[in-house]
Amino acid sequence: MVVKSDVSRNSERRRYFRVTDEIGLKYVVAEPVRTDEAVVEPGVRLRSDILALEGRIRAGLENLKSHGNPVAATLELINRKINLLFAEELPGSIEEQESVVRSVSLSACGIAFRACAPLATGASLKLEVTLLPSHLRLDLRGLVIECADLGLPVHPAPDEAGDERYLLRIDFTDLLEDAQEVLIQHVLKCQTRDLRQRREARETP
To answer: What is the distance between the alpha carbons of residues 147 and 138, in angstroms, rounded to a whole number?
Structure first.
């Protein structure tokens, strides 16, 4: 019998922490990645290197914050600016769409969000996720595991924004380790933010 260590169990649990968040998002149905061939998209190596650096930068910033270093806030703003510039310069995986800021349910292994059009269960997607406020862009692959009709009234003009009557649940696939660690750290940061906001709301007379 294999017994998982506490570190292993904690690491696994972190992957499934889920938060409600606002992110930049665009997606498109894509051909599934074939397991018998290597698929290298433009800029993949560069994006992987950026993610690895981002993880090290985040760790350094958190260390500065934990010691009350006032420089941390300024360095974080500089990092956001650099991420924003890189997001503009890197080749996009979904060129024909504009990124839309939307509310999602996010974890390090999947995402759920409302959509105007249904997608078939099992459909393969390309997703371009921009985490906020860091402006770090992740080019991800996903698999539709559920498309639920929310049963909303049909809008007289269904093409208008806001008529999002379907809930899509997506599992991330072919996820780079660095990308997953960035997602884990982002979700944990969102949890900390939400706990702080709830505490402040309780303390407000």
So the answer is: 23
Residues 84 and 136 sit within 8 Å (Cβ to Cβ): no
Beta strands in 85-160 (DSSP E): 100-106, 110-115, 124-131, 136-149
pTM of the full predicted structure? 0.71
In contact, 79 and 57? CB cutoff 8 Å: yes
Query: What is the distance between the alpha carbons of residues 112 and 164, in angstroms, rounded to a whole number?
Result: 13
Q: How far apart are CA 146 and CA 123, in angstroms?
A: 10
Tell me: the pLDDT tens digits for 15-30? 778 999 999 999 999 8
Q: How many residues does the chain have?
A: 205
- Burial string for 143-176 (b: 16+ CB within 10 Å, else e) reads bbeebeeeeeeeeeeeeeeebbbbbbbbebeebb
125-to-98, 119, 171 alpha-carbon distances in Å: 16, 10, 10
Do 179 and 136 meet the contact criterion of CB atoms below 8 Å apart? no
- 97 DSSP assignment: S
Residue 2 has pLDDT above 50, yes or no: no
Pick left, alpha or beta for residue 119 (phi over 0 → left; psi -120 to 50 → alpha; otherwise beta). beta
- φ, ψ of residue 127 in degrees (nearest 5): -125, 140
